[in-house]
Amino acid sequence: MKNFLDLLGVVGAGLTSRKMRTLLIVLGPLIGVGAIVAAVGMTESQKGELKAKLDELGTTLIVADSQASFGAENDPRFPDDIHVRVGSLSPIVTGSSGIIQLSGVQVLPHDAAQEAFRVLPVPVIAVEPNLPDVIEVSMRSGRWINQADETNALRAVVLGNDLADEYAYVAGEIRSILVEGQSYAVVGVLDPFAFDSAFDGALFIPIATAERDFDQERDPARLYVRTQEGQTELVASLLPNAIALGGNEETSVDVPSDALAASAEADKALRNIVILMGGLALFVGGVGIANVMSISVIQRASEIGIRRALGHSRARIGLQFLLEALAVGVIGGFLGVIAGGAVVYVVSDLKDWVPVLNWPQPFVWIGPAVGISALFGLYPSVRAARLEPLETLRLG
Questions:
Q1: Same-domain pairing of 47 and 65
Q2: Does the pLDDT at position 393 exceed 60?
Q3: Final residue of a domain: which of 224, 254, 284?
């Protein structure tokens, strides 16, 4: 045991006597393990954010768009009894709400802003009163378009989250904005809608008001449908036929949560690529260990010759250099875990993600770093063990 402790002391002295050399060979496993830990951690953190969004918004929302048939009008709309048709799928459908995207409508926060804002188009969306209940988005402030607004075709407007910030709207402020030159009262601000970022920069008015002020048809062009849990795919397959009722209405159906899930799969593929690159960095680092330690054997030939002359065996000399390679793997792997973890926390903070690192699982990656270091440390170790005392005089 004493001899082994003495050997460890020699290993430590060998690593610390040439600090720059040690730093260079440590960089290989450090970069490799750091890249792997960062790739896995950032992917899990982003998936955590995705999971939080899906938990908040649910995976039971379907978006249906009316499609024009061949030779039909260019502005396709759903039939006026669309909610009755969709309601025929009850109870697996729990609600539906339609919207109409208006075009060519100028929106200004006030008269003096015409020069600044006239070139910035603002989406104007005519909506039904139950839209927030169906898409399950709350209000940031104020209230949504209600049934009284719709029944009386009032000029009430709700701002999207980003538009409210752009117009410097303050919660509770008595404020009106100009929609095609007509004054509309701001009654609320909608929270962000993760499934459609266009909502955040949009302006919402009652359908009845859009019909009166802008000569819009009441029939919606897009429909949001909420289903029971676990019934989304079934409803998505049944919805086009339920809407058509044997007629020629064509409907495209999309499940927004599927796009988020596909994004997660793409991130997973990217993570695997980065892990592969991290493995390649480990391999290249191993080659560096072999090269640097082979040079080190030549530089330390005198030391090896003296120790052989004092009676140290070939095995002891070889074990010394192998332990140095293992120490490089352990140190580089440990520092790589710390560096990769730091990257995850910094990026998560910048992206407003919830950092996810399953400690102490990342330390498992130290194993491959040690294995690579040991594998590539074998050659210089064997070379050092084979040196004869007289040969070291020539090398030294």
A1: no
A2: no
A3: 254
